Each structure stands twice: as C-alpha cells, then as structure tokens.
C-alpha cells in the first residue's frame, strides 16, 4: 500500500470493464479515498486499493519495464497497452520478454533482414524481440559450452506455439547452413506439427487450435554450433478430453477429421456423423469456421507420409481412433446379479463388435474387461462385477489409455523421423507449456 497518497496525488484506480484507470485523489478520509477519474466523474475506494501513477512516464511507453518508476499491475498493463497500440508487441522486463498476441500476420517482424540485425546483438541494443532472446541463449551456449532453455508460457491462445516456431526458425537460421542439417531438422520439426496438432490439439473456448499438451523441443548442436539433431518431448496430455467435453469445445481434431474422411474409409471403420458418437456429442460444436475437416484429414495423412508413418501404420492409427469412438458408444444396463452390468441393447453390441474388430481383440474378453474388475489378492485373482456406472468409468479409462498410448507412439515415431544426435555437444530446449490458467475444477 502506498504511504504517500494524499489529495492531488495521481493514482490508478480499479474500475469494472477497464480494469484500471488513471485519476487524481480529491479527498482522503481515513481509509476511504475519493478519486476523480474523468469529466468530474468520481469513485470512492479504499486507500489500500490504489496505486501511484507516474505522470512523467514516457507517452510512448518504455521498451523495458524495469525502467518504470512503479512496477505494479496497472503500470505494467498500461505500458503494454500503449506499445500494443503502436504495434510493438514485444516488451522486456529485464531479461524476460513479454509478447502480446497481435492476432494478425506481422511478416515484417520476422523476415531475413530482421534476423540478420539481431545476430550477435546484445540484449537491449535493439528493439525487444523473440529473436534477441534466442540469440542470447545461443551465444551463451556457444561461449559457455552449456545447454540452455527458453521457457514460453502464457494462457491458452496467448501465442506460445507461434513463439516456439519463431524460436526454432531463428535457431535454424543461426545454426544451420543453407544446404544441410539445420534447415532439414527445423523443416522436419515443423513438418511433424500437423500430425502432433491433429492428435494433441482441440478447439477450446479461447483457441480453435489449442495444444492440450506441454511440449519440450530440444534442438541439438555439434561442436561448431551447427544443428545436428532434434527431439520433441511431450507432457501432460489432457486425457480427460477424450471422454468428456463441454460446450462449445471439441474433442481432439483427429476424431472429426476421421468422420470427414473419404467414403471408403468411413465404411471401413463404420463411422458416420460425429453427432452419433457419445464422445463427440456432449458438445454442440462439430464444425470450425474456416476449417475443412475433410481437407485436413488428407493433409494429416500427407504429413504422416513425410514423417515416415507407413500406410499400414496409418491404418492402425485410424483404427484406434475409430475404435475409441465405438468404445464410447458401448452403453451398459443393470445386469441380472446385483451390482453387475451388461450391454444395454443391440446398438451397444454392435459398437462392442466394432471395437473388438478394430482393435483386433477377442470380443468376449473385451466385454469382460469392461464389465468386471480384476482384484488380485495374495491367494487368488477375483473378477468382481461392476455396476453400469462403474463399467462406464472403466470403459472411459480404457479409451483414455488407448489414446494417450497412441499419442506417445506418434511422438516416438516423429522423433525417429527427425533424428536425434547421440553425440550432441549442447542443446537449446524450448519449453512450450500452458500456465496461469485457473480452473474451477481441475481435471
Ligand atoms: N506472433 C504472432 N503473430 C501472428 N499471429 C499470432 C502470433 N502469435 C499468436 N498468433 C495467433 O494466435 C493464435 C493462437 O496462438 P497459439 O496457438 O500460438 O497460442 P497458444 O498459446 O499456443 O495456445 P494454446 O495454449 O491454447 O495452445 C494463432 O493461431 C495465431 O493466429
């Protein structure tokens, strides 16, 4: 709480909608303060809720917020807003870079000329930029001979994935030579993106293409500082989304892509309208504006070709995706014995049959797995019957495990295709992980 606020002090005061607005204190009465915010409009608030305002701060804001007289929330937000208004999306706070999503292509910010200008420059010599941060990480790696990491964090839709791609582009510029490895590795990492996105991204309230997993991209370098390999590690895939989605979000893209596949494939996997699948119809959102799922299905398959996933493997992948959709439609009813369950109807039997066919497993074994739980005691193994709701939970557990194993397998395959360098001297890791989101309930 500022001690020196008195009548006439310029302050920031919290107001609905605007978050913060500037004003001048007109009266102080113990803890109650009256602030004139504009056109003789006044608000009354507690002294502890006010922040001092620097009236001498530069009109165009500052490019490094450690230069601000006051480093509190309203000062930071105001500075970022002024700069954003001037299309300056990057601002430093010491050696941390803050990037504001421009939601429009700013190609002049990322061209070759600009990359040249950041090469070897000291942090702060040039305008704040993601290339400057990357350059510092690279130079430190070269001079100290130690690996380095860049952490990219922010809430959903903030621009983490785009920023990660820009970091990789700049590292390829620094550590690649036009004909060889650097470019190839960067290209391979980027080319694997559509595959990762089809299986790890989904539409959320904030972002139509939200990554629902954390990603650590390792760019490996040899002794000359040239890129010699790369690897992608993934974390914390949001498994619950496979079985549970809320309106107006979507499940993982791959489910909708497969439902929009050419007729031959739809018949092979006995699919149809996404509205007929329990794992998709919990939300009323099926289509995305500007996205053609049928076209993206073909694009994903092409990306799979590029990363070396064979036709047979692609069939196996989509069989699992289809099996998960059928699995979700296996509904249970109360069985004859107490606390037991059985398939609800012929429709459930059809989906069980389809799941077993697609997963190439025994139908009865699958049914038993869903309706019973194995309890291992020191003496024996008991099969305990499950009531319909426990069987549904069991079914969802299987769907989640199948999906996350499939995702892990894809990542492994992508890494083989990109190629790691076992003798790499150092690496730069880029961690793209969501943060700052607070949910009412954590799933
Ligand atoms: N630097 C940028 N220039 C232009 N557009 C951008 C930039 N950064 C982000 N965007 C736009 O914002 C959208 C969302 O960004 P992005 O997918 O990178 O967010 P994210 O933080 O990774 O979100 P999530 O955590 O949900 O995956 C992008 O699809 C792109 O349209």
Short description:
With 443 residues, this protein is α+β, with helices and mostly antiparallel strands. It has helices at residues 73-85, 112-118, 130-144, 160-175, 181-200, 253-259, 263-268, 293-306, 311-328, 346-359, 363-371, 388-418, and strands at residues 10-15, 19-29, 32-38, 41-46, 51-52, 90-93, 96-99, 148-154, 201-202, 210-211, 214-221, 227-235, 332-334, 341-343, 372-376, 381-385, 426-434. The chain has 12 helices and 17 strands.
Task: Please describe what this structure looks like.
The chain is α+β, with helices and mostly antiparallel strands and 443 residues long. The protein contains twelve helices and 17 strands. It has helices at 73-85, 112-118, 130-144, 160-175, 181-200, 253-259, 263-268, 293-306, 311-328, 346-359, 363-371, 388-418; strands spanning 10-15, 19-29, 32-38, 41-46, 51-52, 90-93, 96-99, 148-154, 201-202, 210-211, 214-221, 227-235, 332-334, 341-343, 372-376, 381-385, 426-434. It has a five-stranded antiparallel sheet with strand order 4-3-2-1-5. A four-stranded mixed sheet has the order 8-17-11-12. β1 and β2 (19-29) form a beta hairpin. α3 packs across α4 (160-175) and α9 runs antiparallel to α12. The longest helix has 31 residues, at 388-418. The protein is globular, with a radius of gyration of 28 Å. It starts with 9 loop residues before the first strand and ends in a 9-residue tail after the last strand. It binds adenosine-5'-triphosphate. Adenosine-5'-triphosphate (ATP) binds next to α4 and β10.
């Amino acid at each position: 709480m500022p001690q020196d606020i008195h009548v006439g002090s310029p302050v920031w005061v919290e107001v609905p909608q605007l978050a913060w607005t500037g004003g001048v204190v007109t009266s102080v009465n113990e803890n109650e303060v009256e602030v004139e915010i504009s056109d003789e409009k006044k608000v009354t608030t507690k002294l502890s809720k006010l922040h001092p305002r620097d009236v001498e701060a530069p009109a165009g804001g500052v490019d490094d917020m450690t230069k601000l007289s006051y480093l509190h929330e309203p000062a930071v937000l105001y500075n970022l807003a002024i700069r954003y208004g001037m299309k300056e999306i990057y601002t430093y706070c010491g050696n941390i870079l803050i990037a504001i999503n421009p939601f429009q292509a700013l190609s002049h910010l990322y061209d070759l000329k600009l990359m040249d200008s950041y090469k070897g420059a000291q942090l702060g010599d040039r305008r704040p930029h993601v290339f400057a941060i990357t350059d510092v990480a690279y130079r430190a790696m070269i001079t100290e001979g130690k690996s380095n990491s860049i952490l990219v964090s922010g809430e959903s839709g903030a621009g983490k994935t785009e920023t990660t791609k820009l970091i990789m582009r700049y590292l390829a510029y620094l550590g690649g030579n036009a004909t060889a490895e650097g470019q190839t590795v960067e290209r391979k990492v980027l080319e694997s993106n559509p595959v990762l996105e089809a299986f790890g991204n989904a539409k959320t309230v904030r972002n139509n293409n939200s990554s629902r997993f954390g990603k650590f991209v390792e760019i490996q370098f040899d002794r000359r500082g040239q890129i010699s390999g790369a690897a992608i590690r993934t974390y914390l895939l949001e498994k619950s989304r496979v079985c549970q989605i809320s309106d107006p979000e979507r499940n993982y893209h791959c489910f909708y892509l497969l439902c929009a596949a050419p007729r031959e494939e739809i018949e092979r996997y006995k699919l149809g309208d996404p509205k007929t699948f329990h794992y998709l119809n919990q939300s009323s959102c099926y289509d995305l504006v500007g996205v053609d799922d049928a076209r993206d299905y073909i694009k994903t398959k092409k990306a799979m070709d590029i990363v070396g996933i064979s036709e047979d493997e692609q069939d196996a992948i989509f069989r699992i995706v289809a099996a998960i959709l059928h699995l979700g439609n296996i509904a249970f009813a109360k069985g004859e014995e107490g606390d037991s369950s059985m398939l609800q109807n012929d429709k459930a039997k059809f989906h069980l049959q389809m799941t077993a066919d697609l997963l190439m497993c025994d139908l009865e074994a699958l049914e038993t797995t869903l309706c019973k739980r194995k309890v291992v005691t020191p003496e024996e193994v008991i099969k305990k019957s499950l009531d319909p709701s426990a069987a549904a939970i069991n079914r969802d557990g299987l769907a989640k495990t199948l999906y996350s194993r499939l995702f892990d397998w894809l990542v492994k395959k992508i890494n083989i295709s990109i190629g790691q360098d076992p003798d790499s001297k150092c690496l730069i890791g880029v961690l793209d992980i969501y943060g700052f989101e607070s949910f009412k309930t954590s799933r």
